[in-house]
Amino acid sequence: MLNESNLSRIDLNLLVLFATVLEERHVGRAAERLNLSPSAVSHGLKRLRRLLNDPLFLRTPKGMVPTVRATELGEPVSEVLARIGDIVSAAEVFDASTSRRRFIIGAPDGVSAVLLPLLLNELQILAPGIDLAVRQLLPPSRARGLQSAWEPVLEELEAGTLDLAIVPLETVPARFVMSTLYEESFVIVTRTGHGYSRDPSLDQYCDMQHILVSLTGDSHGMFDDYLAALGRSRRVALTVPNFMQAMLMLSGTDFVTAVPRRLADAYAGRLDLEIAEVPLERPPDQIRAVATKAAMMDMGVAWLLDVVEKTSRQS
Asked: Domain for residue 96, yes or no?
């Protein structure tokens, strides 16, 4: 255990350096991320080795391999750095009108394409110096049920790779904050003149060639589960990674695709598409903004959630 003398010799930058090398497993890449020279990183590791009385990392042809002690230290060091980040963020006064921060929001494009134009207009008025990064989110693999499909998003929020996620989660653990933005359902869209909208029956639906939105290329979607329960199936002729691309692919084809209703309402006219109801009973989704409680201690993230909530009421 470290005594007071050892504590006085700890440089916080050494903990940041340790966490970065542990993640990258490579001195050069760690140096690049930290904007340091490789020799400076190596020097910092020497100081850490003396301080902790352990080699920490062993150099191999495949990179820097952590010792057992280094692996054990990984999680507690990350927790210490996260706590320090919370303390510093809470101490800073956030002023949206002058802030130059950059926030990362994750959402499926069926959500971001609807909310983002309104959100950007609001930011131009309230916070012209704030930048946004929007990441496309979709379930990473086949999952049974809405909750299990979207739960991996929670890991990204806890890892800090997202400040805010806007997804159709049903529930979240107590360590998260969740706000319901709006209710969403799916509709079928086709090119104008396709004919499906004149007979949107289940038989016609099953006979069509479908475009499925899938991040992984998996041809099994949520509607296939509903069809299987009825003893029916459909042909997925094409998978694409987002809803906008799915709608763009309808022009000049006889394909059909299911997209969020608000997205279809916003873009069907521009893309010369027709909208029809889905011939399957499915409850609407609750689109929710989710953040960790730890992140909400940051006045900037709390402000962003508030703006998203207000913006969603305009959609």
From this structure: no
